[in-house]
Specification:
This protein has 8 helices and 8 strands; from the N terminus they run αββββαβααβαββααα. It has about 220 residues and is α+β, with helices and mostly antiparallel strands. It has one domain: L-fuculose-1-phosphate Aldolase (3-Layer(aba) Sandwich).
Length: about 220
């Protein structure tokens, strides 16, 4: 459902992928080599943290090291989305770093987002671990000219965060076209994140995007 929501909202494209850690902590579920928008339950594969396929009919994507390196080193991460979010990619190509200019940006990525400057597919663990190094304690990193990686504590949180990050990037892009940016003050960001995440914002947003997807499916 997360794969299909992100495709419907223009965040995923034909080559993105979404993963989630299993309850035992030792395996990862993710879409195999199929476009996220086409993914159904039978297209989900199960991998161990070294990248060996345990279950599933499809082959894994080339960029599984990008996901697995995070799961290996950050036990608090329960889900990940690698998207080619268009405005985030555009800003990275222009050399503009994401900054929080609205409540959604403050909630999703905070004051700013690290940028990984190397190019190409993340198809080796060496490169993936360099990305994890650059990501550090952040919950998001931008891959310059490529896309982004968003981590979270649940599938719903990651799915919604990926949408919110693109919305925040679009606002920043629009503001830059009009005049000077006025990012949120650093001291306000933690407060705003607490206000948004302290309620049921992620749950409400997930239900909304689930509803939108089902509505589109009926049309």
């Amino acid at each position: 459902m997360a794969c299909r929501i992100l495709d419907a909202e223009g965040i995923m494209d034909e080559l993105g992928h979404f993963s989630a850690r299993t309850a035992d902590g030792h395996h990862v579920l993710m879409n195999g080599k199929i476009s996220p928008g086409q993914t159904v339950e039978d297209d989900i594969i199960c991998l161990d943290l070294r990248g060996n396929k345990i279950e599933g009919r499809l082959d894994p994507a080339k960029e599984i090291p990008l996901h697995l390196a995070v799961y290996q080193r950050r036990p608090e991460v329960m889900a990940l989305a690698h998207t080619h979010s268009p405005t985030i990619v555009a800003l990275s190509v222009a050399g503009a770093r994401l900054v929080a200019v609205d409540n959604l940006g403050a909630t999703t990525f905070g004051e700013t987002v690290p940028v990984f400057e190397e190019y190409g597919l993340v198809d080796t663990f060496d490169m993936a671990h360099r990305i994890v190094d650059a990501m550090a304690v952040h919950w998001m990193i931008v891959l310059k000219g490529h896309g982004n990686l968003i981590a979270g504590r649940s599938i719903e949180e990651v799915c919604v965060s990926a949408i919110w990050a693109e919305k925040a990037a679009r606002l920043q892009y629009q503001a830059m076209a009009i005049g000077n940016l006025h990012p949120y003050p650093k001291e306000e960001i933690a407060k705003i994140r607490g206000q948004v995440t302290g309620g049921k914002a992620f749950e409400r947003a997930w239900n909304y995007y689930d509803w939108r997807l089902r509505l589109k499916s009926r049309l």
